[in-house]
């Protein structure tokens, strides 16, 4: 953690990565052969850094350029004194990989890429150079068996159990989604678990979403000399838009600064001017619930105060005012009894943002929603408010660009059932599933049962980023989908992943009430004028940073109180 908390870097799709490489080759920046040599050299170097004493390595080379990288790794490790076995395919790869294969043949042989071949001799290390970004369909036959074998080995220690280093990605992982191609969504059978993955230039979506972090192990992003300047050019017409990701280690190791000015702004938004007063920092209104439901709203309120909102008012119904008199004492309390009352309260233009949902109760949320949306105030909708939205005849009606929705996957599925179903599905369907939910479910069940149809499918898989982008476009506002990989999309910023993976993991956030704190941080930032997209990004970053700073034993109450410590490291 450090002052780079908000720094982000590009997160590419496989197609964008290919475009970048092609652009580099077309503009004479580098030849394909040179890129392959650098990629292989980067992998060999990372291996030698971690395993300085040469041992026995088996390099598994696939049919494409990923295999080409593998032949380079084999040659360089051989030169470094390793005992190298190479398992490869008969098929002729493209010209660059063919050249690397030829160069390897000058030093050693190639055995068949089979389970039997893999098991024939013990090794200290396996290098997986079977598939990278070119994987377009589920692996089949012998290669599928081999990948399953490697996957099982990592899980239960059977068969081959030596550490595995993946070139670009563990083979079978879809680099667009983080799912395993051909496996049930969320299941990791069929792809090896790597100890180390060395990827090139930029992380891909699949490295940080879903199963990516678990399958990749440590992720090293090696620079292979693709242009940093003018990178927008090669992407040109390629959809979807380039996403960004953040996570402390990635931020620290890379000098990509402000993308679109968001990174710097996120930081600056948290400072306070020497001459300001409380109203210069906004007034946040939290629409709390009835008796017995106070805890969640107070968690949000404390977070909003800690993030620097000038004033925070808790607004329960009159009968619950007494319960909400509990600390923090810095809070103001004022009853709001129904939509009329709310509209009246919001005539006060000094109220700069509102939150509805945490502990508000579904009925109360439903009663207040329309009035709140009608005012056009910057608004965070969380928890019960999301459930209330999903129960309306037109769930998304009235949402405006000043809104942030913060669903977890369950709430997301209620609001966007078809998108959630697509996310559960194994492949990006050629045509969309039927609108009607029951028909869509039947459609998917039939698809999943039809192995032949599945095998014929082409990637890329539908990803969480795709789903959240679609949801944000439909809702016309910012959507933050919570999870270990928190994804944000909205009208005023690029799609974004807060990568809570690798050494940025914040698993202690999986505790009751931590979502209420997140909503409160976003509310506080929005009350201070961050706008919805940046508010969501500030929230996701600070939330994870506070959890990492506190560490094991964290309960949601600790999160707001840990924020000052995080701010100290940010020099705010
Ligand atoms: N293009 C470049 O300039 C560079 C590419 N590099 C490497 O090249 C990789 C991408 O290379 P490719 O595009 O050749 O793709 P891959 O080597 O990842 O695999 C594609 C090959 O496998 C086949 N294939 C795909 N799915 C299959 C399946 N289920 N069963 C059997 N065969 C299948 C494809 O038809 C193709 O021949 C990257 O991951 C990276 O490792 C690096 O060398 C850096 C430079
Ligand atoms: N394994 C994890 N790693 C990182 N963050 C997590 C993890 N599990 C949950 N979180 C985060 O914790 C919060 C949980 O929020 P939510 O699901 O609304 O729970 P609650 O309603 O109990 O507050 C979200 O911000 C989510 O991103
Ligand atoms: K690979």
TrEMBL record:
Cofactor(s) this protein requires: K(+); Mg(2+)
Residues that hold K(+) according to the record: 66, 128, 171
Binding site for AMP: 482-486, 515
Function: Bifunctional enzyme that catalyzes the epimerization of the S- and R-forms of NAD(P)HX and the dehydration of the S-form of NAD(P)HX at the expense of ADP, which is converted to AMP. This allows the repair of both epimers of NAD(P)HX, a damaged form of NAD(P)H that is a result of enzymatic or heat-dependent hydration. Catalyzes the epimerization of the S- and R-forms of NAD(P)HX, a damaged form of NAD(P)H that is a result of enzymatic or heat-dependent hydration. This is a prerequisite for the S-specific NAD(P)H-hydrate dehydratase to allow the repair of both epimers of NAD(P)HX.
EC number(s) given by UniProt: 4.2.1.136, 5.1.99.6
CDD domains: YXKO-related (cd01171)
Domain YjeF C-terminal: residue ranges: 261-570
Assembly and oligomerization: Homotetramer.
UniProt keyword Kinase present: no
Catalytic activity: (6R)-NADPHX = (6S)-NADPHX; (6S)-NADHX + ADP = AMP + phosphate + NADH + H(+); (6S)-NADPHX + ADP = AMP + phosphate + NADPH + H(+); (6R)-NADHX = (6S)-NADHX
Cofactor binding note of this UniProt entry: Binds 1 potassium ion per subunit.
Annotated family: Belongs to the NnrD/CARKD family.
Designated name of the protein: Bifunctional NAD(P)H-hydrate repair enzyme
InterPro entries linked: Carbohydrate_kinase_pred_CS, CARKD, Nnr, Ribokinase-like, YjeF_N_dom, YjeF_N_dom_sf
Residue ranges occupied by any YjeF N-terminal domain in the UniProt entry: 17-232
GO terms (BP aspect): metabolite repair; nicotinamide nucleotide metabolic process
């Amino acid at each position: 953690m450090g002052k780079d908390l908000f720094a982000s870097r590009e997160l590419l799709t496989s197609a964008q990565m290919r475009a970048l490489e092609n652009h580099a080759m077309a503009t004479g920046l580098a030849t394909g052969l040179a890129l392959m040599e650098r990629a292989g050299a980067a992998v060999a170097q990372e291996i030698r850094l971690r395993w300085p004493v040469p041992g026995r390595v088996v390099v598994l080379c696939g049919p494409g350029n990923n295999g080409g990288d593998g032949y380079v790794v084999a040659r360089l490790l051989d030169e470094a004194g390793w005992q190298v076995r190479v398992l490869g395919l008969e098929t002729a790869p493209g010209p660059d990989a063919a050249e690397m294969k030829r160069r390897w043949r000058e030093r050693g042989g190639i055995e068949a890429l089979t389970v039997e071949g893999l098991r024939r001799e013990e090794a200290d290390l396996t290098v997986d150079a079977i598939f990278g970004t070119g994987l377009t369909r589920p692996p089949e036959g012998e290669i599928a068996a081999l990948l399953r074998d490697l996957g099982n080995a990592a899980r239960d220690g059977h068969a081959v159990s030596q550490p595995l280093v993946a070139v670009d990605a563990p083979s079978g992982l879809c680099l667009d989604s983080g799912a395993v191609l051909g496996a049930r969504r969320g299941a990791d059978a069929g792809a090896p678990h790597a100890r180390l993955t060395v990827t090139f230039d930029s992380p891909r979506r699949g490295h940080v979403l879903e199963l990516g972090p678990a399958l990749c192990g440590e992720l090293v992003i090696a620079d292979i000399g693709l242009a940093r300047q003018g990178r927008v050019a090669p992407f040109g017409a390629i959809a979807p838009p380039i996403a960004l990701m953040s996570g402390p280690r990635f931020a620290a190791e890379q000098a990509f600064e402000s993308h679109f000015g968001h990174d710097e702004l996120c930081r600056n938004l948290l400072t306070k001017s020497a001459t300001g007063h409380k109203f210069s920092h906004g007034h946040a209104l939290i629409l709390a619930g009835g008796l017995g439901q106070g805890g969640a709203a107070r968690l949000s309120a404390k977070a909003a105060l800690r993030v620097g909102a000038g004033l925070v008012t808790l607004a329960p119904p009159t009968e619950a005012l007494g319960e909400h008199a509990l600390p923090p004492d810095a809070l103001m309390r004022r009853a709001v009894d129904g939509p009329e009352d709310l509209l009246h309260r919001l005539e006060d233009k000094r109220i700069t943002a509102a939150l509805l949902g945490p502990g508000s109760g579904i009925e109360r949320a439903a009663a207040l929603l329309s009035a709140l949306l009608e005012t056009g105030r910057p608004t965070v909708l969380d928890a019960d408010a999301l459930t209330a939205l999903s129960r309306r005849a037109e769930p998304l009606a009235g949402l405006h660009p000043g809104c942030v929705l913060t669903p977890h996957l369950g709430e997301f599925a209620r609001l966007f059932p078809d998108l959630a179903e697509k996310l559960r599905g194994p492949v990006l369907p050629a045509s969309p599933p039927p609108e009607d939910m029951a028909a869509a479910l039947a459609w998917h069940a039939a698809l999943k049962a039809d192995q032949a149809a599945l095998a014929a499918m082409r990637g890329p898989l539908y990803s969480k980023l795709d789903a959240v982008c679609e949801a944000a476009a439909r809702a016309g506002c910012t959507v933050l989908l919570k999870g270990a990989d928190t994804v944000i999309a909205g009208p005023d910023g690029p799609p974004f992943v807060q990568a809570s993976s690798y050494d940025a993991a914040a698993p202690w956030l999986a505790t009751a009430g931590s979502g209420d704190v997140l909503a409160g941080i976003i509310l506080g930032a929005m009350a201070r004028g961050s706008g919805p997209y940046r508010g969501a990004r500030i929230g996701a970053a600070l939330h994870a940073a506070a959890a990492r700073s506190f560490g094991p034993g964290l309960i949601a109450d600790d999160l707001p109180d840990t924020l000052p410590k995080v701010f100290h490291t940010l020099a705010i």
